[in-house]
Amino acid sequence: MAKWNENWMDANGEGLSRRGFLGVGLGALAGLTLGRRLILPAVGQVTAEEATSATAPAALPAARAKSVILLWMGGGPSHLDTFDPKPEAGDAYCGPLKKPLETNVAGIRISELLPLLAKQADKYSIIRSMTHDNNGHETATYIMQTGTLPSSDLSYPAMGAVTAYEFQTGGRYTGLLPPYISLTNSLGRFSEAGFLGPNYQSFATGGDPAAKEFNVQGLVLPRELTDQRVKNRMDMLQAVNTLGLREKNDPDLGVMNEYQRRAWELMQGEAPQVFNLATEPEELRKKYGMNKFGQSCLAARRLVEKGVPFVTVNMGGWDTHKENFEAMRRLLPVLDGGFATLLEDLAGRGLLESTIVVWTGEFGRTPKIEREAPWNGGRSHYGTVFSVVVAGGGFKGGRVLGASDEKGEKVKERPVYPWDLSATIYQLLGIDPNGKLPNPQGGMAARVTPALPPKTKSGGLLKELVA
Amino acid sequence: MLNRGKYLLIGGAAVLASAALVMAALAAPTTIAPPSSTVAESARIDELVEGHLKWAGLPVAGASSDEVFLRRVYLDVIGVLPTAAEARAFLGDSDREKRRKLIDQLLERPEFADYWSLKWADLLRIKAEYPVNLWPKGAAAYYRWVRESLRANKPYDQFVREMLLATGSDFRDGPANFYRAVNKKDPQSHAESAALLFMGVRLNCARCHDAPNTKWTPQDNLGMAAFFGQVKFKATGEWKEEIVYVDPRQTFNNPSGHKPVTPKFLDGAEVKLETGQDGRAVFAAWLTTAENPWFSRNIVNRVWSWLLDRGLVEPPDDMRASNPPSNPKLLDYLAERLAAHHWDLKQTYRMILNSRTYQRSSEMAGATPAGDVNFARYLPRRLPAEVLVDAMSRVTETTQTYQSDIPEPYTRLVDWPAVKVADGSITSPMLELLGRPARNTSQELERTSDLTARQTMFLLNSNEVERMLREGGRLNRLKAEAHGGTVVLSRTIIEDLFLASFSRYPTAQERERLEGLMNARPPAQQLEAARDLMWAILNSPEFVFNH
Questions:
Q1: Are B162 and B282 in the same domain?
Q2: Which residues of chain A have pLDDT under 50?
Q3: What is the ipTM of this complex?
Q4: Where are the beta strands (DSSP E) in A115-273?
């Protein structure tokens, strides 16, 4: 790459070397807010340091996982049509999907439309008794993503934001890439950063990893921007940036120059490589599936290889009120290729041991099929019982935890609540579920897993699934 | 002027917006305090600020230049940049009173109501989706009422009373949404919401336990909630519509002990409600007076923080004994003047904007945190997300689209200013990335003016910014003129861009350097060079910050 940036750095009068910079990275950049709000906390406000030091990691088991890949099925996938098939419940429930597949683990059956995942069942465990009883997309999304119930005042951060915060403030992640990445869009239902604020919002790549060029917002330069063109722009910036230079010592303005310098380094460094999926063998890419979800799974593996602690792959289309089975025939093969190949690929590279993979949506879908128009064989929202799949990072494979009743309508045994799952994930990551987060409201610190309302049910940590 | 005609002709909400504009044209002008009164009030503000700084031995910054003042006051008061023509006119005007006159003009522009509706929509949590779930129709009705109240400069006490005493359909009676814009529609949430918004008091911690920081106890929380114990909701035949009504037979029972709770004000006085009396009215009558220690102080402190970027009490919505104001005399003075002007909030804006304190430079050798807390200079701040996007659109002459994919009915606003997007669920990835608040809470801190690394990267390199550079009308018009001499072309472009973006003429040195850079490119690359200059402007701190 061109050397122009070094000239520019000299012009700013600061000799920040490339090497010195590389040790800092965008991860640290997010925490490096020099704004005066952080310099001058209000009386009684808990600072990040205080909140962190208030945690008591002594009693915590050693961290098993370094990363999480969350396969988020927006809209809510049917449990009966995926990981909890009920052919015995009859046509009114299972519809045309009457012949579930035996998997490579004796006694575990999954949907006939997931043949590749059937061969990987030794790597994952199925939770068939997840429940939260909420049927609204936005609230159920919040509950599943944060592992908390809506409260009267605070809006909690998603697990990804908490992980990003804990790994950065704890010094466990100092990489160049953002700590919490969404492929390719944000959720839209609620703000994933919650009260942790914009620094911990997930970085949505945009673009399409299955396209010829995966154009990642702010990390990969568009092809038409040649080195010469970039140099021309930087020259122009230097010529108009008189206020920035004059106020170099003003923390509010100076920080922009600082960010710009580092961002350019990142764009020229490893970021374009990690998102360049063309370097993967064609055969492997096809196995993942040459579609947005499949290639996002591949990109997620590459990000985890680079140490990124939390990656969400968003796959939509599961809100199948109408013509559910037509949708299943379209969606499940895509899911099958991406998810199964991801597990196989992670395991083959020895990464599955340190990477948690979670497959879930905000809820399941009504077990009884709605035949009449306008639904024409649709399924509605269902939070009473549904399925979640977990693998890797300390989770055992080849197990089924809990069960729904014979029609998939109620929890039959071992209920699992969203906070049971999130607390287990936190613990495997080495994050104390009872640890503290900086509470923007001042006063007391907020907990990683907040105090839930009295009488909230819990099934406890998923000890049965932790190896 | 903003391209208002263009905005209004296109897009889903155009009819409503036009109607509001017609009403704006017909309404009688609001009363303006005589200049002499404002002069004296602004002078008193300066006396109190400077007295404090002098006592602390802290130096103050000099006055801002006309260029800096112009850009600042447009952005702060109406949330838009002055046009190149407006900048030329103001800078060329030799009237010594031109700053005062400009402030008066800006306070009467329709964009004033747009911009401050955005602020109130944040605080009141106007959002169709999670967590308050007003639904699109409720959000639209609430926003319409807020904007009309601000346009008419409704006295502030009346504005608050209309919310507290609201009843009716959330889809038709805008302020009734005050009782729906909470996470849980229970009396304690309503009390906490009223305390936070109108008193700057945080009662929420005291719901469960004594809050030593604030001195409030669960009994205080319950006592306040008892004023709201008669608020009820019922569904109608329309999907998601709700009627807010008052059932005077109801009393508020302690949720744990099931015993009726006696209403109690936060000053400790208990009240017994008469049979059939609306508890909310009793609370509103106590709250909206000049004597109430919280009511006027809360709002003037907020306005101060909106204009000076830091409250006299900071955070501006956390008033308590353990978080005292940095300048108590000034806070008392502003509060006293608001009541004296019959709750005319515009006069509060006016006296602050006309002060030397507001008009100070942001540049200062030896700026210190202590000086910053005490307003020794104007604190530079990143433009709010919506204002920044609008400024970028305006400078490049491009349009933006905002939409909500959830919940139904879906909305798509085409060619629409971000400041005027009413509903927090209608958005764009760019707006989110630039720090639009989620409206998760009513707290001021949800909107930050810190710049993040990610935002910087977005401005440096993103499809959105590339699209603006490529499609921008301002530069594409030059295609037609590109056959003229390149030096003339460069000079025009540079001056126009500087005035439209920075509200100033380029310096001789800047002109020379930029012309040199443009002339170094072959004629075929002149348009590209102009785009590169535009890119550089959008990425300069002088553009991204209000200073």
A1: yes
A2: 1-58
A3: 0.84
A4: 124-130, 180-183, 203-204
Q: Are A205 and A182 in contact (CB under 8 A)?
A: yes
Which residues in chain B touch residue A42, judged by CB atoms under 8 angstroms apart?
Answer: 314-315, 318, 323
Q: Burial level of B93, CB count in 10 A (0-12/13-18/19+)?
A: middle
Measure the CA–CA gap between B534 and B160, rounded to whole angstroms.
Answer: 44
Which residues of chain B have a CB within 8 Å of the CB of A27? none
- Shared domain check, B329 and B308: yes
Say how many domains are in chain B.
3
Within 191-220 of A, beta carbons closer than 8 Å to B belong to: 191, 193-195, 197-199, 201, 203-204, 206, 215, 217-219
pLDDT confidence of residue B256: 85
Tell me what pLDDT residue B389 has: 97
* Alpha carbons B127 and B411: distance in angstroms, whole number: 13
Does a structural domain hold residue B487? yes
CA quadruple B517, A219, A187, B127: dihedral positive or negative? negative
Look at the block and give the residue holding tokens 């502030």: B156
Pairing of strands B401-404, B411-414: antiparallel
| Helical residues (DSSP H) of A376-434, grouped into ranges | 418-428
Q: Which domain holds residue B518?
A: 463-546
A62 in contact with B, Cβ within 8 Å:
no
CATH number given to A64-210+275-453: 3.40.720.10
- Low-confidence residues in chain B, pLDDT < 50: 1-30
Nearest by CB to A218, which of B188, B382, B462?
A: B462
CA distance A70 to B255: 39
- CB-based contact A335:A373 (threshold 8 Å): no
A175 vs A22: CA distance, rounded Å: 9
